[in-house]
Specification:
single chain; 264 residues; Rossmann fold; four-stranded antiparallel β-sheet; disordered N terminus
Length: 264
């Protein structure tokens, strides 16, 4: 396995140390250690069943590791799904996960519902002047997130009335509206055509400009190579390679995992 060679001058946003996850007799992750630096984009690649989604589920607190630990900004981190936004972590899903009965704006506002240091209970719970003002502030933040992705004109629409590529942007806006320290993108290019993928790549590149780190799980290898600062490759639950896109592209173990080519 290729050793990690991260820039020591860049602080680590998320550290995974020896993460092991077992489901009965199946080891889904086998002592995986990985650093995601602050303000960087890290891709996580691997064939189907390699453990990529399991790794994301550990970071989100859906699965507790049997062994290993996590640190977020140098502090021990035990993620809990219902407090994820409060921890500064946001995630998009493999599917859209949008609520069909809510407008686009209301869907994005749900990205603030888990609460953070500046946020309390969900909007509209009490028809008091302070609550109304607070809901207006949240709505403005949601509008700003939509505008930043170029889909503000769809704020009043229902998601199912919109093209798939637009709905993907809405899902991304919902994740970004909480201003996370760490954004987890789970196959964001799934179901998109090449033009939409190219536009998505441009959007992803802008995210670290706000100081956010990005972890990207994606099957579109070209997208991963184009946007990521570093790439980690899993195979059968093990980290088999980690490096820059150029290093990963030249790694024979990666070719073996993806293509069945015998590693030299």
């Amino acid at each position: 396995m290729q050793e990690q060679q991260t820039d020591r001058s860049v602080p680590t946003r998320l550290r995974l140390d020896g993460i092991t996850v077992r489901f009965g007799g199946l080891t889904a992750l086998d002592s995986v250690s990985l650093d995601i630096p602050a303000g960087r984009i890290v891709g996580i690649m691997g064939p189907n069943g390699a453990g990529k989604t399991t790794l994301f589920n550990v970071i989100c607190g859906v699965f507790a590791p049997n062994e290993g630990s996590l640190e977020l900004d140098g502090q021990g981190f035990t993620p809990k799904p219902h407090l994820l936004t409060r921890s500064g972590v946001a995630r998009t899903l493999q599917g859209l996960g949008l609520f069909p009965g809510l407008t686009v704006l209301e869907n994005v506002m749900t990205g603030l519902a888990a609460g953070g240091p500046r946020r309390g209970p969900g909007p509209g719970l009490l028809a008091l002047p302070g609550s109304v003002r607070r809901e207006a502030r949240l709505a403005q933040r949601a509008e700003d997130a939509l505008e930043a992705l170029g889909v503000g004109r769809y704020a009043a629409a229902l998601p199912d009335t919109l093209p798939y590529g637009i709905r993907k942007k809405v899902a991304l806006a919902r994740a970004l509206v909480s201003e996370p320290r760490l954004l987890l993108l789970d196959e964001p290019a799934g179901g998109l055509g090449q033009d939409d993928i190219d536009e998505l790549a441009s959007i992803i590149r802008t995210v670290p400009g706000d100081g956010c780190s990005v972890a990207l799980v994606e099957h579109h290898v070209d997208l991963v190579m184009a946007v990521c600062d570093r790439i980690a490759v899993l195979d059968f639950g093990r980290l088999i390679a980690e490096g820059t896109p150029a290093e990963i592209g030249a790694d024979p173990a990666v070719a073996d995992a993806y293509l069945g080519v015998e590693a030299a």
